[in-house]
Design brief:
Layout lengths: L1 H4 L1 E5 L11 E4 L24 E13 L2 E12 L5 E8 L6 E8 L2 E3 L1 E4 L1 H15 L12 E4 L2 E3 L4 E11 L1 E3 L2 E6 L11 E11 L4 E5 L6 E6 L2 E11 L5 E7 L4 E8 L7 E9 L12 E7 L7 H15 L6 E7 L3 E3 L5 E2 L2 H12 L9 H10 L8 E7 L10 H11 L4 E8 L5 H10 L3 E5 L5 H12 L2 E12 L11 E5 L6 E2 L4 E7 L3 E11 L2 E11 L10 H21 L3 H14 L19 H11 L8 H16 L27 E5 L5 E3 L3 E4 L2 E6 L2 E4 L14 E4 L4 H9 L2 H8 L6 E6 L2 E5 L1
Parallel strand pairs: 3-14, 21-22, 21-25, 25-26, 26-27, 38-40, 39-41
Antiparallel strand pairs: 1-34, 2-5, 3-4, 4-11, 5-9, 5-10, 6-7, 6-11, 8-9, 12-13, 13-18, 14-17, 15-18, 16-17, 19-20, 20-31, 22-23, 22-24, 28-30, 28-32, 29-31, 32-33, 34-35, 36-37, 37-38, 40-41
Length: about 750
């Protein structure tokens, strides 16, 4: 079990195969020049023809549904000869772009729009000439193409383009797509990637959401937003995607849905957001109690940061708020006997109380919880208790179950509890039990992290409640019967959180019925119960994969919920089996399914997979230490994930270095729980919504893993790469299927099922 406990996994999921950032194509007819990939370590001479992307800067101004985009991209020739190249820019979608202007080192170059049919011929000719399948995923899409220009060895060229793009829109939701993903074709990581997208709307702007990148959103007023993203020394692997919706009224909501087949339920994502300002002129006041651990283990930097964070909260309370402070070690002390109205006199006194908090003594969590929750007995309105600890209970009640039961009895259900676990000595399972019991959440702060940053950032999110006690209901236009059961199910998060100014709700779930529906959000706004209705469309099965990311997003949250259920309620065979099934289908590794990355060539029987996972989840019995901390940190990441890529943008060093990304598409990073040392699981490759597993030099999909190449020979059609049959297959494929073909590298074989037929591509 120790070996199993030593693995924590973060997954970087592949994008939808929609389009790509511009790339250079070597036009020399006598040179075979595959698109460059990162090469680990130095090479004696370097490739004859290769380039790296030095910088990528994207500025976009969007007004309602029209985007004006300006892109600057610097290429450096890393090869051994002068490259005669043309710049190719695959279109995001047909008919979307016009007025394109292209400059190379300040000189304007003619750029010709190739319609999809002509572009297909060019894509295929490049693939044939260079024997490189990289461009296959864009077969069937249009392209802008420049005339040829030279790039001498070691020299760079700055390519700038401007274009106008009409955004796709469904109901009130607009979709901005920037073609970025061919920036992965570079001999070295991109030194700098910068995005700045300014959005202006004539109606009120509600949700602003990126499923692909961890963006920062600034909202100066109700009809403007500035979206920023930056990264350094990175290899972009997904197109940049941004959704935003507009609506009148204090709350807006939109639904994205995707159903892969008629035989399975669909997946939906609901975005809901209030206006940037409060819902109306009467600001919603809140009650907040901060419960601070001042035990001896908090001495030093931790208690200093906690005092600074608490002072920040006091200085940012709103008029009408009520508050109190509880400090605990072996004993418990309160700032005042009951909640205090926020005013200058009470604020000043509270800051003085905070400055007088010093560390020392044991950890009486039970009494601290009871004292903190008792403050809310007579409170009206939204109530939050921020509870902080850095250790295990050592004084008074120390039993997890009893502590949770006693706290639940003290809270009639109206107080949401937000927990901060500081350092590796904390009982992380206890904090998660408390979060679930009190409809809140836990946040884990590593020893090297700044506690003040965590607390102040979370407080900013909850500082101004707009709609509390939120509930969501779905009513379909078509009638239903009792036998049909619920039209929507397995919605996450399970408890719908409150809506705050400047924040948004990201809800995912499954659906059976298709067609038009009405979504109703109900909740308390400024002390009154209110209801808001929004139209929605739940799509039937389709080949359109624009919203396919919703399926993987749901799977990630569901896996987080499964781990939480096992962690807090004990092991359940059905949950373990579902964990294995979802992890296998979607290539989402956890510390309990890391065996999926085994490249030994032996396919594990379903019973063996179950047994390994069943043994591995026993590691959740560890409540404290680095292992317990990391398991619950990952569980929470999965439960709250709002992108189809599990990437911590605040900790870029946590993820793949250039060397670790050497095997193209080796994007699963395993880290030791006890040391944080990285291990790359190159046996899994995620391409769009498909997951490929390596067995020796053979990559197979989750669906074809059970096939035996010898016993099932009659079912398998063998296709040689770059043969006539290969390009016939390409012509028949969808973009998603060709993206799978494009992931195949030299020396690899690929076993896939397209449209019911199994192909072995050699």
């Amino acid at each position: 079990m120790q070996r199993l406990l030593a693995v924590a996994v973060l997954v970087v999921l592949s994008p939808l195969p929609l389009s790509a950032q511009g790339l250079l194509i070597d036009t020399d007819p006598d040179v075979v020049a595959p698109l460059p990939r990162p090469i680990p370590g130095p090479t004696p001479h370097g490739p004859e023809s290769a380039y790296r992307i030095k910088e990528l800067d994207v500025r976009a101004n969007i007004r309602d549904q029209v985007a004006q985009v300006q892109v600057s991209q610097t290429f450096v020739n890393t090869g051994r000869r002068t490259m005669e190249v043309e710049f190719c820019f695959p279109l995001p979608y047909d008919g979307a772009i016009d007025q394109l202007t292209l400059m190379v080192d300040g000189q304007e170059y003619p750029a010709r729009l190739l319609p999809a049919g002509e572009a297909r011929a060019l894509y295929e000719s490049i693939v044939r000439k260079n024997r490189d399948p990289a461009l296959l995923e864009w077969v069937g899409q249009g392209m802008f193409r420049t005339s040829v220009f030279p790039v001498p060895p070691g020299q760079e060229r700055k390519v700038s383009l401007k274009y106008t793009q009409l955004l796709r829109s469904s109901q009130q939701l607009s979709d901005f797509l920037f073609p970025l993903s061919t920036a992965k074709y570079t001999s070295q990581p991109v030194e700098s990637v910068q995005f700045r997208v300014a959005v202006e709307t004539t109606a009120d702007l509600k949700s602003v959401y990126s499923p692909s990148h961890g963006v920062v959103v600034e909202r100066p007023d109700a009809r403007h937003a500035v979206v920023k993203y930056s990264a350094a020394n990175t290899i972009p692997r997904s197109d940049f995607r941004l959704f935003y919706d507009v609506a009148a009224g204090p709350v807006g909501a939109s639904v994205l849905s995707y159903r892969p087949s008629d035989s399975d339920e669909g997946y939906f994502l609901l975005l809901a957001a209030p206006q940037f300002a409060a819902a109306d002129d009467r600001q919603t006041s809140k009650n907040i109690v901060f419960v601070l651990d001042r035990s001896g283990s908090m001495e030093g930097q931790k208690i200093e940061q906690a005092r600074e964070a608490l002072a920040f909260v006091m200085n940012n309370l709103n008029e009408g708020d009520r508050f109190n402070i509880v400090a605990y070690d072996s004993s418990v002390e309160t700032f005042r006997a009951e909640l205090q109205p926020f005013n200058e006199e009470n604020r000043s006194a509270a800051v003085g109380f905070i400055n007088g908090i010093y560390a020392g003594g044991g950890t009486n969590i039970g009494s601290a919880l009871a004292t903190g929750l008792a403050q809310f007995k007579e409170a009206d309105g939204p109530s939050y208790m921020m509870f902080l600890t850095d250790g295990l209970p050592t004084v008074g009640e120390t039993n997890e179950a009893k502590l949770v039961a006693e706290s639940r009895q003290a809270n009639p259900g109206k107080v949401r509890m937000i927990n901060f676990g500081v350092g590796y000595d904390v009982n992380s399972r206890l904090l998660d039990r408390l979060s679930r019991a009190h409809h809140g959440q836990s946040e884990y702060v590593r020893p090297e992290d700044n506690l003040e940053v965590h607390i102040s950032r979370l407080y900013k999110k909850i500082s101004l409640p707009v709609m509390t006690d939120v509930a969501v209901d779905f009513a379909f236009d078509t009638p239903t019967t009792a036998e049909q059961g619920a039209r929507v199910s397995r919605i996450y998060p399970r408890i719908v959180p409150d809506l705050f100014a400047g924040e948004q709700l990201v809800l995912v779930g499954r659906y059976k019925a298709t067609g038009r529906a009405k979504v109703t959000l109900t909740g308390t706004v400024a002390g009154e119960m209110k209801s808001f209705d929004f139209p929605a469309e739940f799509t039937a099965a389709t080949d359109d994969t624009r919203h396919a990311f919703v399926e993987r997003l749901w799977a990630m949250r569901r896996i987080g919920e499964i781990i939480d259920e096992i962690d807090l309620n004990g092991k359940n065979d059905e949950l373990v089996q579902e964990l294995v099934s979802l992890s296998t289908k979607h290539g989402i590794l956890t510390p309990y399914t890391s065996f999926l990355a085994d490249e030994s060539g032996r396919e594990l029987a379903s019973s063996e997979r179950f047994n390994r996972a069943s043994d591995a989840v026993e590691s959740l019995s560890v409540a404290g230490g680095r292992g317990g901390f990391r398991q619950r940190e990952l569980k929470q990441q999965l439960q709250l994930i709002d992108r189809y890529r599990l990437v911590d943008d605040e900790r870029p060093d946590e993820f793949l270095s250039p060397v670790e990304m050497a095997a193209d598409d080796a994007r699963v990073l395993i880290r030791q729980l006890d040391t944080d040392e990285p291990i790359v699981a190159s046996g899994i490759r995620n391409v769009g919504n498909e997951t490929l597993y390596r067995r020796g030099n053979l990559f197979m999909t989750a669906e074809t893993q059970s096939l035996d190449l010898e016993a099932d020979r009659s079912e398998i059609e063998v296709v040689e790469r770059f043969s006539a049959a290969y390009f016939e297959l390409v012509a028949a494929n969808s973009a998603a299927e060709n993206a799978v073909l494009s992931s195949q590298q030299d020396g690899e074989e690929l076993l896939v099922r397209f449209r019911g037929q199994v192909y072995l591509v050699k």
